[in-house]
Amino acid sequence: MGYFEKYQVDVPEGTSGNWSVSRFTVSKESAESGRLRAFVSMSRRYVPEGTYTQLKRGDEIVMSDTPDEIQDHLNAIRRASGRCLVAGLGLGMVAHAMLRKPGVKHVTIVEKSPDVIKLVGPWLISQFPGLVTIVEADILTWEPPKGEKWDITWFDIWDQICGDNIDDMKKLHRRFARRAGWKGSWARDEVERANEEWARSPWNPKNRSHR
């Protein structure tokens, strides 16, 4: 895996409410099988051999520190400097990577699930005491303190890549237009591409001829 190992996290395993943090291992055989399926389906996503950490809500994996998921966040991590705002705590992977950069002074994280905060928050704060603020709130309705501004913002509040996410993304980019410099949303390029494909799809009712 190489390059991506430095971004993996060691959040303690545990459970709070319907949420849990746990490790999982992908064998060499499973990795090869996944790589073949990805090739056949022309998908770039598969999980290489290794041990990873995952955040689950019930039986659903919401986030993991696999190379593909790390890749999704690299642009935000590379751009991070000064004061950063991250919407969605997840495994704390993005904030952790940002705070390891010398130019990052502070990261504010807005997370609406108290269980996720309970599982991940103490670990992250212990790594960077005084440099992390975690706010329990919904980023879509949260009102930041008056005058608060950030150098970059990263919005990562969606469980899946879906065309419907674009409405929230546009709303958030408008809401924080004057409060932050660079702004990005998780998998926005793929979301926009999905919407473009749907707009051209023959299954789209708008593209069906009416008699």
Overall outline: globular
Radius of gyration: 18 Å
CATH topology of the largest domain: Rossmann fold
Quickly count the helices. 6
Unreliable stretches (pLDDT < 50, length at least 5) are 38-42
The computed structural class is alpha/beta
Strand order of the largest sheet: 7-6-5-8-9
- Content of β-strand: 25-35%
Indicate the CATH class of the largest domain: Alpha Beta
> What string gives the helices and strands in order?
EEHEEHEHEHEEHEH
Termini Cα gap:
56 Å
Mean pLDDT: 88
Number of strands: 9
Q: Would you identify the CATH H-level superfamily of the largest domain?
A: Vaccinia Virus protein VP39
Folded structure, characterized:
The chain has helices spanning 28-40, 67-79, 93-99, 114-127, 166-175, 188-200; strands spanning 14-16, 19-26, 50-57, 60-64, 82-87, 104-111, 132-136, 150-155, 180-185. The chain is α/β, with parallel strands linked by helices and 211 residues long. Helix 2 (67-79) crosses helix 3. The chain folds into 2 domains: 2-64, no CATH class; 71-193, Rossmann fold (3-Layer(aba) Sandwich).
